[in-house]
Specification:
2 copies of one chain form a homodimer. Chain A has 261 residues and is of the alpha/beta class. Chain A has 2 domains: 143 residues, Rossmann fold (3-Layer(aba) Sandwich), CATH 3.40.50.1860; 111 residues, Rossmann fold. A 6-stranded parallel β-sheet of chain A has the order 4-3-1-2-9-10, with helices on both faces. A 4-stranded parallel β-sheet of chain A has the order 6-5-7-8, sandwiched between helices. In chain A, helix 3 packs across helix 4 and helix 9 crosses helix 10. The radius of gyration of chain A is 17 Å and the shape is globular.
Chain lengths: 261, 261
C-alpha cells in the first residue's frame, strides 16, 4: 500500500495537538509525521464553527500538497466543527480526536461521564452526541475549562494555581458523580497530573491524545521501518512555538518552517 | 472642523480595548464611537510584529471606509508593532496606548517603573523606549503577565486565583523596588482591584485606558453635543463578544455587527 509510506499529517490550531503528535510518534516511531499548527489564528476554541471549518480546510489542503497519506485532526474544536466537511472533501482517511475519546469513555464508564473542553467544543456537544450514539443510556456532563489552555501554554501546569483552578472547574462534575473524565482538549493532558490529584483514584481519565494515537496505529496498515522525519509547520511566531513545543515534547525542535495558508 | 463630528474608531485585537472604549465614552459622552475587535484572529500578544502590523492595517482600512475621523489603537501589542506604519499611511490622527501610558508613568515615578504587558509588547520594549525618550534616567523593568488576559476574559478577575497569579507575576517587580506600575495591556484594568491589593499603596498604578482617553479628549477639538451612537464590529463569535463586552462595560451591547476584514 503506497499510502502507508506517506507521512501522516497532524493538524492543530496551535501547540495543543503536540500531545497527540507525541503519542503517535511513540506508537509509530518509524513513521514520518508533519505537524501543522495554525499559530497565526490560534485559538479556535472561542471562534465560530464556520470560521473553524474554513481554517481547517485551508490547513488540510496545505498538508495534502505536502503528500500526507492520512490526516489526524488533533484539535477537539476543529474535529467538532469540521470533521464531516473534511471527510467529504479529502481523498485520504481523516481521524479526529472526539470519536476515539468517546469510545474509550464508553468502554470504561459505569454510567456517568464528565467531559472538560473548550467553549467551542462544549457548545457543539460533540462528545455527548458521540457517546450517546454508542450508548444512549450514558449520562454525559460537559463543562468548559478555558483557563487550562493558558496554564498549559505558559508552563503553569504543575503549580498551586493550576491545582486551585482544577478544583474549581472539576467540583461540579465530581458533585454530579462522574466516574470517568474525558480530557476533551488536547492541551489538557499537560495538566493530567494536577487533574488526577483533584479527581482522585475513583475517576478514570480518558486522554484523547492516547486514544487517538491508538486509532492511528490501527488505521495504518503496514509499518514503516526506515528513519522517521518529523516536520513542524507553523503559520506564525516560530520562536514561541519552538519554546512551547520543546516543553511539550521534551526535546529540541528541528525542521521548523513558517508557512502561509 | 468637519473631522470632529466624525466618529472615533477604536481598534483592538478582541475585547481588551473595551477598557479604553469605556474611558473614551466617559470622557466624550456625546461623541459617536465605532469599536472594531478582530475576534477571528485574537490574540495578537503571541503573534509576530509583521503579522500584527498586517492585521492592524486591514482593520484601520475598514474603519476608514466607515468614515472615522480619528483612530485609537486600543491594543498595546498593535500599538507597539504598527503605530509608525499607521501614522505613515492614514490621513487621520492615530493615537496609540503606549505613549500616553509612558507619559503618565514619567510624570508620577520617583525613578523606577514596572511595566506588565503581553509577551509581544514586552519583546518590543515599546514602553522602555517611550519612557527613556522622555527621561533617560528612569529605570524600566518590563515583565509579561499573559495569564491575566484569560483571567479577565473568563470572568476570574476578582478571585483568589487571580490574586495568587498577581502575587507571582508582581513579586519580582516589587522586589526590584518599583514605585510605579504601568498596566501595559488593555485587559489588565479589569484586574486593577486585585493588582492594587498586591502592590499596596506605595506603588502608583498607570492605567493606559485612562491616560489614552485623556489624550483623545485633548486631540478632539470641539465637542459634539448630539446623541452619541456606539457601534461594535467584530470579525467572529458575536455572542462571546456580547457576553464579555456586556461584563466589561456593565451594559447591554446594541449595534453589534459581524464584519470581514
Amino acid at each position: 500500500m503506497e499510502r502507508d509510506a506517506s507521512p501522516i499529517g497532524v493538524f492543530d490550531s496551535g501547540v495543543g495537538g503536540l500531545t497527540v503528535f507525541r503519542e503517535i510518534a511513540r506508537a509509530l516511531p518509524h513513521h514520518s509525521l508533519i505537524y501543522l499548527g495554525d499559530s497565526a489564528r490560534v485559538p479556535y476554541g472561542t471562534k465560530s464553527a464556520e470560521t473553524v471549518t474554513r481554517y481547517t480546510l485551508q490547513a488540510a489542503s496545505h498538508l495534502l500538497d505536502r503528500g500526507i497519506g492520512m490526516l489526524v485532526v488533533a484539535c477537539n474544536t476543529a474535529t467538532a466543527a469540521a470533521l464531516p466537511a473534511l471527510r467529504e472533501r479529502l481523498p485520504i482517511p481523516v481521524i479526529g480526536v472526539v470519536e476515539p475519546g468517546a469510545r474509550a469513555a464508553v468502554a470504561r464508564t459505569r454510567g456517568r461521564v464528565g467531559v472538560i473542553a473548550t467553549e467551542g467544543t462544549v457548545r457543539s456537544k460533540a462528545y455527548t452526541k458521540a457517546i450517546r450514539l454508542l450508548d444512549p443510556t450514558i449520562e454525559v456532563i460537559e463543562s468548559a475549562a478555558p483557563l487550562f489552555v493558558s496554564l498549559a501554554e505558559e508552563g503553569w501546569a504543575n503549580t498551586h494555581v493550576a491545582r486551585e483552578v482544577a478544583e474549581i472547574y472539576l467540583e461540579p462534575l465530581l458533585d454530579a458523580g462522574i466516574d470517568t473524565l474525558v480530557l476533551g482538549c488536547t492541551h489538557y493532558p499537560i495538566l493530567r497530573g494536577t487533574i488526577e490529584q483533584v479527581v482522585g483514584e475513583g475517576v478514570s481519565i480518558v486522554d484523547s491524545a492516547e486514544t487517538t494515537a491508538a486509532c492511528v496505529l490501527a488505521a495504518v496498515g503496514t509499518r514503516s521501518t526506515g528513519a522517521a522525519k518529523h516536520t513542524f509547520l507553523v503559520t506564525d511566531a516560530e520562536e514561541r512555538f519552538r519554546r512551547i513545543a520543546g516543553d511539550f515534547l521534551s526535546r529540541e525542535i528541528e525542521h521548523l518552517e513558517l508557512v502561509s495558508l
